Amino acid sequence: MRLSKVLPALLAVGLLVQILLGEMGLAVRALRDMHAAIGLAGVVLTAYALRASRGRRASILYLAILLILVLVQAILGLILFGIFWVDLELFELVEMIHRYNAYLMLVVGLVGGIVVAVVGRRSGSAEAVSKGG
Question: Please, what sign has the CA dihedral across residues 77, 81, 87, 89?
């Protein structure tokens, strides 16, 4: 089985695990390093998905938006991790943006995935009709 076929599900499961770790408070304490590693793997896998989209316009647009959100999430996470410095007064704001961006990624991922699937199906059926099949 090709990675590109299971990648959307892998990214969705990874994001759900990340949200659960964050909401349970485990991303701050016990599983902080694992949370960071999963997040950075998400950046790589999302970039790979964009590269593997092979010129389908709807897919490229959707994955480019998702990659921007994932990169923002990673940068915010690295700030919270302490790799980038931020004023302590802004720490809570960064934490809140990091949290809500995760939910935004989930919504964009779900809605975008559905839209890309519908557009792909319609263009596939239009090709079949034009070929007489």
Answer: positive
39-44 CB contacts, 8 Å cutoff, 24+ apart: 39/73, 39/74, 39/77, 40/74, 41/14, 42/11, 42/14, 42/15, 42/18, 42/70, 42/73, 42/74, 43/67, 43/70, 43/71, 43/74
Domain count, the chain: 1
Per residue in 45-94, pLDDT (tens digit) is 999 999 988 767 888 999 999 999 999 999 999 999 888 887 878 889 99
B/e letters for 34-65, b = 16+ CB within 10 Å, e = fewer, are ebbebbeebbebbeebeeebeeeebbeebbee
% residues pLDDT > 70 (the chain): 90
Give the mean pLDDT of 107-111: 94
> Which residue range(s) make up the domain with 83?
3-130
pLDDT (0 to 100) of residue 131: 58
Total Cβ atoms within 10 A of residue 18 = 22
Cα 43 to Cα 37: distance, rounded to the nearest angstrom? 10
- pTM listed for this prediction: 0.85
